[in-house]
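Q: For a teaching handout, I want to show students what a protein-ligand complex looks like in token form. Below are the inputs, and the small molecule is pyridoxal-5'-phosphate. Please produce the holo structure.
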Amino acid sequence: MARIAAAAQRGGRLPHSVQLVAVAKTHPPDAVRAAVEAGAKIIGENYIQEARAKFEALIHIPAQWHFIGHLQSNKAKYAVRLFHLIHTVDSLALGAELDRHAGKAGKVQEVLIQVNVSGEATKSGVSAGQATTLARELAELPHIKVKGLMTMPPYFDDPERARPFFAALRRLREDIRAQAIPGVDMMELSMGMTGDFEAAIEEGATLVRVGTAIFGGRA
Ligand SMILES: *Cc1c(COP(=O)(O)O)cnc(C)c1O
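A: Here is the structure, written as tokens, with pyridoxal-5'-phosphate included.
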């Protein structure tokens, strides 16, 4: 938390403008409970199956759950049930499926648009050019609320090399904001992991997704 605050200050930002998502994939419920007791307020999960089991084990835990993995449309129902914010919407088809289940559940589902800023073929996400179109399309869905953008740059040993991708996501947010699409609020930038969260915060991250630095390595 001290490193988040220091990075925020270097970026000319207030520490509480950055929220930590404690990424718990592969770690057991006891580890999640310990993290929450130590102050984690948001738990990030990548897999629906795993999240369902952990959610049951930790039903009354005072934390929000965020989905940060690749979401298949046939799991949309569970995602809507479990998660406050879904970081990884990358198609209208998925958005429409989430909208349908959110409608049934009487919920407005908050989402981020996942952007493949680097254009790597192996990464999920829409291109920067498609992000505005998707934001406009999702804005038409009554039970979906677009809160911002998420990205995962290529992995580098040197976090400085990830920085241009973080800056690009921030500029994209400004471009979309400038279009003032009704119903789309571009508050959130989900970017930065254990190896590069400080650079991400300096470039404007509002949500950093940190696993290893909190829970240790994954088997
Ligand atoms: C696993 C994961 C993280 C956390 O990665 P660490 O390097 O362990 O901090 C963040 N974001 C996504 C999308 C992930 O899948």
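A: Two things your students might notice: Residues 23, 25, 46, 68, 152, 193-195, 209-212 surround pyridoxal-5'-phosphate (CB under 6 Å). The chain has one domain: 2-215.
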